[in-house]
Design goal:
repeat, single chain, C2_dom, 5-stranded antiparallel beta sheet, globular
Length: 703
């Protein structure tokens, strides 16, 4: 699309070429502007240009005063790890002491650029509020160069993401092995910040799969200690691309270095300790990598259903029986999903139809159906089999509309916790919106079976949960901040109500209650032993099991926290001529995000403790009862000093016994599996009445 003298505006993206994985160098020369808009009273302007990628500013030009045909002749070079984000160019008129005036903007779609040669590009400036207004143009020279490596050149190229979703073969979705990666640490990285340090994080890419580590602030020798799994789709292994970045607030992150690992050189079924030097930079990244054979995943027609074959079902039940409880602890169970059909879907195309296909996700495992074209009531009749690594995982079933030349349109989503599944029951699930806060149009019919080993499931509960490969960066949201504040307030109010009740016993507001409380206090204190602490929590769980009405649902008052509407996206930060002011603004934004996240964490853990006691997830409450019985037994039989001594010896010798151990807290890992009140509402099933029309069903569920 873009060639010599090609123009590109912000209105409609050009047809995109297939993006390839890997690193890219983008060289941009900002030459000049033509016939720019008048913004000053003297009939002229003081223009300057900003370039943004992924919402972050990556370049700002100098200001050319009193000129509508400015000549900049400035160059900048960017390092990219993806071409999916367009380059966003914005032109402003500089006003001293005032907010700068907007003069127009345009997008440059990088996927459409011809690579390895300099291309003249003209960007036609537009104002989204006044699309017909002539705002002039920018003249650029752009060079996009892939940073190919010798390893990658020797290998066959991976499947392009632009292949039509309906043409994906069944086998191309099924992985042949698992790459378990423990990111341990970095050593002697180069400083990228003015303070002589960096805020490093790591990105991993294996074919289409991506993973991003946490950021370790202000260090050149970061300790990440993270573990995650990627899928192997090639028999020979594939090339694992590793890039290290320095996180910067308010501007594009700095590239520190990269390295690659050819997985075909590693032997399988054993752990490899690797210290990989960074190319084009100094420093090392330390990893533990293990290649294992694939767990059983499959896609089949309804006529070939694994669990419907009696002999195969017996073998699966035997594999996850009690006698196999201590073998291969990561293989907890198996889930089989029959995707039957959907009905009453949203029309996403101009012809009043859709081209729906269905994507199933279990943690980072992802499979999909074929596309049924021009149909609002598609039938897929496919059977999908996943291995279960965590019984507390949530199966996500999302319906999309396939589009030939752009990304698929979202039609609806259903989420089903594995522990909520009733085996062999064909059930209709109302589709929800992206935020899972309310229904959208349509329903999907599934039949799900889950077989798992209870002992393995319990043991996996107290290890860190698997994280999504690439999670979205948190954003400031006034609505979310207020919601999290209200959640924390509710938790505090519960504690205050308990305190008020206890104080009423001291105030003798009820003589009977105060007498009973006083006698109970004297008896407990006089006979107190340490084992009574877990015993008291055990009695609370047992009491709620028999007498609490909130076992199967969370407090109805929780619904008052939510308004079923989409979150407003954050508005773009106002531009200012002073970088110092912008840095302060971004710092304040970071503080708001930290406060917002902290409120969410505090509220979530408070709600999870309540939901454990309330039997919201019976499996976890029974597990808590088992642990409390064991703790009571230990404290009753063994003196406390011996238990504390054993705990201390374990803590002090843990690093000596395993220097690369990934730290975890068993209690927090357990609580992370208990849903918060927000998640309980998201996982709540909406009713499907076969006799209702889709529009009437949606109104019923909204009410």
């Amino acid at each position: 699309m873009l060639g010599m003298g090609a123009s590109c505006s912000s209105a409609v993206p050009p047809e995109r070429a297939a993006p390839s994985s890997g690193m890219y160098k983008l060289e941009i020369e900002l030459k000049r502007g033509h016939n720019l808009a008048v913004r000053d009273r003297g009939g002229t302007s003081d223009p300057y240009v900003k370039f943004k990628l992924g919402g972050k500013e990556v370049f700002r030009s100098k200001t050319i005063h009193k000129n509508l045909n400015p000549v900049w002749e400035e160059k900048t070079t960017l390092t990219l790890d993806s071409l999916s984000e367009p380059l966003y160019a914005k032109v402003f008129d500089y006003d001293f002491g005032l907010q700068d005036d907007f003069m127009g903007s345009a997008f440059l779609y990088l996927e459409s650029l011809e690579q390895q040669r300099t291309i003249p590009v003209t960007l036609v400036l537009k104002d989204p509020q006044s699309p017909d207004e002539d705002l002039g143009s920018l003249e650029l020279a752009v060079t996009l160069t892939p940073k190919d490596s010798p390893i990658e050149e020797r290998r066959d190229s991976t499947n392009q993401q632009s292949i039509r979703l309906s043409e994906l073969h069944r086998k191309s979705q099924l992985w042949r092995g698992i790459v378990s990666i423990a990111l341990i640490e970095g050593r002697n990285l180069i400083p990228m910040d003015d303070n002589g340090l960096s805020d490093p994080y790591v990105k991993f890419r294996l074919g289409p799969q991506k993973y991003k580590s946490k950021t370790v602030p202000k260090t050149l020798s970061p300790q990440w200690r993270e573990q995650f799994d990627l899928h192997l789709y090639e028999e020979t292994g594939g090339v694992l691309e590793i890039t290290v970045w320095d996180r910067d607030t308010g501007r594009r992150d700095d590239f520190i270095g990269r390295c690659q690992l050819d997985l075909s050189t590693l032997s399988k079924e054993q752990t490899h300790h690797l210290e990989l030097p960074l190319e084009e930079s100094r420093g090392f990244v330390v990893l533990l990598v293990t290649l294992t054979a694939s767990a059983a995943v499959s896609i089949a027609d309804l006529s070939v259903t694994p669990l419907d074959d009696p002999q195969e079902r017996r073998e699966i039940l035997k594999r996850y029986g009690v006698l196999k409880s201590l073998s291969n602890l990561k293989d907890v169970g198996i889930v089989q999903v029959k995707v039957m059909r959907a009905e009453g879907l949203m029309a996403a195309d101009v012809n009043g139809k859709s081209d729906p296909f269905c994507v199933l996700e279990l943690n980072n495992d992802r499979l999909q159906t074929h596309t049924v074209y021009k149909n609002l009531n598609p039938e897929w009749n496919k059977v999908f089999t996943f291995n279960v690594k965590d019984i507390h995982s949530v199966l996500e079933v999302t319906v999309f509309d396939e589009d030939r030349d752009r990304s698929a349109d979202f039609l609806g989503k259903a989420v089903i916790p594995l522990l909520n599944i009733r085996n062999g029951e064909q059930k209709g699930y109302v589709l929800k919106n992206k935020e899972l806060t309310g229904p959208t149009k349509g329903a999907i019919y599934l039949e799900i079976d889950v077989i798992y080993n209870t002992v393995k499931a319990a043991l996996r509960t107290v290890v860190p949960a698997e994280q999504k490969y690439m999670e979205e960066e948190p954003k400031v949201s006034k609505q979310l901040l207020q919601q999290n504040f209200n959640r924390v307030k509710r938790c505090i109010m519960v504690l205050i109500s308990y305190g008020t009740y206890i104080n009423s016993c001291f105030e003798w507001e009820s003589a009977q209650r105060s007498i009973i409380s006083f006698v109970l206090f004297v008896v407990v204190v006089w006979n107190f032993e340490l084992y009574m602490l877990p015993l008291g929590l055990l009695l609370l769980l047992v009491w709620n099991y028999f007498f609490s009405s909130s076992r199967d649902m969370t407090d109805m008052s929780m619904e008052a926290m939510f308004e079923w509407e989409d979150e407003d996206e954050d508005k773009e930060d106002k531009d200012s001529e002073h970088k110092g002011f912008m840095n302060k603004l971004y710092a304040i934004q970071d503080v708001f995000i930290s406060v917002q996240s902290a409120l969410d964490d505090v509220a979530s853990y408070g709600e999870r403790m309540k939901n454990t006691v309330n039997w919201t997830v019976p499996f976890l409450s029974w597990l808590a009862i088992t642990a409390l019985c064991f703790a009571t037994f230990l404290l009753y039989l063994i003196p406390l000093r011996y238990l504390v001594l054993a705990w201390g010896v374990n803590k002090f010798t843990k690093k000596l016994r395993n220097p690369y151990a990934i730290d975890n807290n068993e209690l927090l890992d357990f609580l992370s599996r208990v849903p918060s009140d927000v998640q309980v509402m998201q996982y709540r099933e909406l009713r499907v009445d076969p006799g209702q029309s889709p529009s009437k069903r949606r109104r019923t569920n909204l009410s």
